[in-house]
Backbone:
């Protein structure tokens, strides 16, 4: 019989979400999403597996027909030595040439930007879900909040009617 491996405290398994950018869907309208690989050094992936990664100010740019992820904060690995990485270094994203060309055209044309939505592990490899986004205005955000509140109130009322509560 095979023994089960013990899971370290704070560690994540091979197919799990490491970080999500919750503000992105609030501040931007996501038009399209892409899955892309990430070029990382050894201590970065070890730190990510401990669950320490922040997407707060991260964004992607296209320079010299290559996509780079900027301002992604991966803290230094706790058991690292002189080989540790710098926490906010620029990291290269791996996409097919036709995907990069398509994104380049869309970003150059209008007021669209590339935002990382989620970082996760897939078969032991770090992946980034990249979203082509367009900024929302304040009134768009208010409309979304209003719509969410209305839907919540409708479901509450339906639940009350099903339960027979008259309030």
Residues:
């Amino acid at each position: 019989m095979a023994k089960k491996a013990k899971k370290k405290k704070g560690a994540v398994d091979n197919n799990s979400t490491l970080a999500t950018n919750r503000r992105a869907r609030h501040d931007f309208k996501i038009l399209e999403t892409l899955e892309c690989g990430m070029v990382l050094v050894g201590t970065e992936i070890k730190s990510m597996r401990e669950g320490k990664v922040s997407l707060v100010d991260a964004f992607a740019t296209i320079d010299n027909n290559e996509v780079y992820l900027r301002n992604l904060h991966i803290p230094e690995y706790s058991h690292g030595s002189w080989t540790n990485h710098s926490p906010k270094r620029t990291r290269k994203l791996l996409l097919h040439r036709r995907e990069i060309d398509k994104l380049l055209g869309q970003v150059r044309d209008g007021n669209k930007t590339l935002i990382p939505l989620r970082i996760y592990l897939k078969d032991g490899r770090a992946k980034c879900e990249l979203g082509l986004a367009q900024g929302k205005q304040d009134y768009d955000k208010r409309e979304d909040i209003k719509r969410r509140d209305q839907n919540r109130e409708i479901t509450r009322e339906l639940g009350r009617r099903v339960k027979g509560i008259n309030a």
Q: What stands out?
A: The chain has a mean pLDDT of 84. The CA atoms of residues 29 and 134 lie 5 Å apart. Residues 138-163 form the longest helix (26 residues).
